[in-house]
Amino acid sequence: MTELDADLVDIFVEESVDLLDHADGLLAQLRQAPGEREPLVGLQRDLHTLKGGARMAGIMAVGELGHVMESLLEAVVDHRTELGQDGIPLLERGFDRLHAMVTRVGKRRAIAMPETLIAEFDARARGQTAAAAPSRPAEPVPAPKVELKPLSAPITEALAGEEEDVGIRAPQEQVRVRADLLDRLVNYAGEVAIYRARLEQQLGAFRAAVTEMEQTNIRLRDQLRRLEIETEAQIIARYQREHEDADDTFDPLELDRFSTLQQLSRALAETANDLASLQSSMDDLTRQYETLLLQQSRVSSDLQEGLMRTRMVPFDALVPRLRRVLRQAAAETGKQVQLKLEGAQGELDRNVLERMTAPLEHMLRNAVAHGLETPEVRRKAGKPEEGVVRIAVRREGSEVVLEVGDDGAGLNRAAIRKRAEERGLVRPGAVLSDSDLDALILESGFSTADTVSRLAGRGVGMDVVAAEVRQLGGSLDIRSKKGEGTTFTLRLPQTLAVTQAVFVRIDDTTFAVPIASVRGVGRIGRDQLGRADASYRYGGEDYALHDLGLLVGHAPAKAEGQLQMPLLLIRSGELRAAVCIDQVLGSREIVVKPVGPQVASIPGIFGATIMGDGSVVVILDVAPLVRRAAALPREAAPAPAAEQRRVPLVMVVDDSVTMRKVTGRVLERHNFEVMTAKDGLDALERMDERVPDLMLLDIEMPRMDGYELATAMKADARLRNVPIIMITSRTGEKHRQRAFDIGVDRYLGKPYQEHELLRNVFELLAQERANA
After folding, report:
1. Coil, strand or helix at 516
2. In sequence order, what DSSP letters do the residues of 50-111 get, joined into one string?
3. pTM surpassing 0.70?
4. How many other CB atoms are found less than 10 A from the CB of residue 664?
5. Ordered strands of the 673-677 beta sheet
6. 14-60 pLDDT, tens per residue?
7. Distance between CA atoms of 332 and 247, rounded to whole angstroms?
8. How many other C-beta atoms lie within 10 A of the C-beta of residue 399?
């Protein structure tokens, strides 16, 4: 590699990746319709371009493999041979090998000549040709070349070797832009929109001030008119008193008998006229500024929309990589599998797609290793020998929904329970629902595989998926049916976007709700709110009633001064919810700004936006809030209401101020009393005064860490019965086992899901009361 031109190699790798991805789609078409000619011709063209570029860059191994693959396709297209049933798998092996070699070249790693594979392709091509085939020239006559959106003009021109002719349009030039630069441009466009909104608000205030100035000028002119009348009356009266016997030929006002007050009143009248003229000029300028701002708003919106579109990439871009993962997994396990796609033409935010690439690969490998049966087992079960993995992409309101499913055997819940009991995650004999058992596969390091392989058994898989989804602020649902397969549903928010939002008010707090998830607004009588089965009928569907104030841990909605309660109608997937609010403030376009990781991990927070006056408004994703509210009563059920004679006291021990505050607020919203400590020594000092009912404990802290504190508590008769939930970023098996050896009751990883934390808290408090 050291002897090659580095710039030329980079250009070749960039173009080759696109060519191979395009070829992967043609391979999928060929598998669906093996007799079609167009996919064969397209593959031949891609290989011809790839071969020429490889040879020009000096990467002969790629060139030779591409050449023999092109020779086979040429023979098939010219009807000198047939592809046969095993021809498509052979082509897939060849393209996978090409992709692996190009990837190594891009990393500046050496590649070997794939002699065995080249010989296989060469023998296949020559064995099916006529007797004159051995004398065939080594270089086949190239087919008419059609460029496929080349990434670089130099290679394209060198490979074409001639000027473009017969009606083929010149390819569109493309420019590659660094992702971080594009992200900055999108952020700048968002800032411009925020400043534009502030300008609009300030211009509106200026317009109001000009209107007020006009009213003031009207009052001033009226007062001056009355002042002039009064001064003229005073002049006449004074003249009459002083000059009763004077010549009345001239009226006193016709003489130069103006007093100083009269002169001032006339001067004030002229000033008032000047002010009116100035106000008129300001009014004209304001109208011009409003017109300019409107034009700037349109251009800014178009700019922002264009930049946002550049961040959107089709899910199709990831499909070739996913197909290769499936083929590799199937080859290693001896299983047969095909990938089916729904909605793959839809576009996703590039950040979301990049963050979800590795988790999706994990899920596909798991589907092959754990989900799909071997061909023999499938045949005995009455299934096709070839299994199916399905990926569906769709949008539901403000969420991007990814469904990854297979038609395999489904989750082995007996094996999951057995492994969970072995690890201490579930007590023997505990009653768990199917959904609770399924959720155990999301635990860190959890695996039911008996042997370690490249695909399974290392305990890395679904916990990685769940962690990534949590960090994106999304949710993960599992549906599995024995003998029919498993489906994972990932609901992911957009990370940064310009969207329309409805603004609502609860007490003194304003929230924004993306309009994509809002079906409408309505009103309901206050007398209907108290019923347990209360719902709102809209568009032929029933919407369950909820209170937005309670959903966000706020005071309930009151809607003071209104006869009926305003409702915001939310629809997301199968969810229908009518949410009570205090007031609908209207809708407008907003810029969604990402929030920090501490806030993004809280369910229901879609992001934040900056208003024209500089204030920050939280953007709510109401659907997760409603789902959590519907799930919490079932999780809180182990704590009977009759036993809740006092508010439980929970101690949060963590050296992070943010974690103490966030966790404390979560607990306080659910009616727990909270005390905090910054490390182990601080916690022991505070427990001299009060013993908590439960402790949430971090590991890594100054002065005394979590292990030392838990050991000290278990050695103290007064503190040894306090249940401990350890919440830490150290999720390795070694740390977990040490915690359980000390006597810790539960072990959760950061960042935690709020409902998961509350479920553990309620269960431990219920067990403590039962033991007491």
Report:
1. helix
2. HHHHHHHHT-HHHHHHHHHHHHHHHHHHTTSS---TTHHHHHHHHHHHHHHHHHHHHTT---
3. no
4. 18
5. 673-677, 649-653, 694-697, 724-728, 746-749
6. 888 888 888 888 888 888 888 788 888 888 888 888 888 888 788 88
7. 128
8. 24
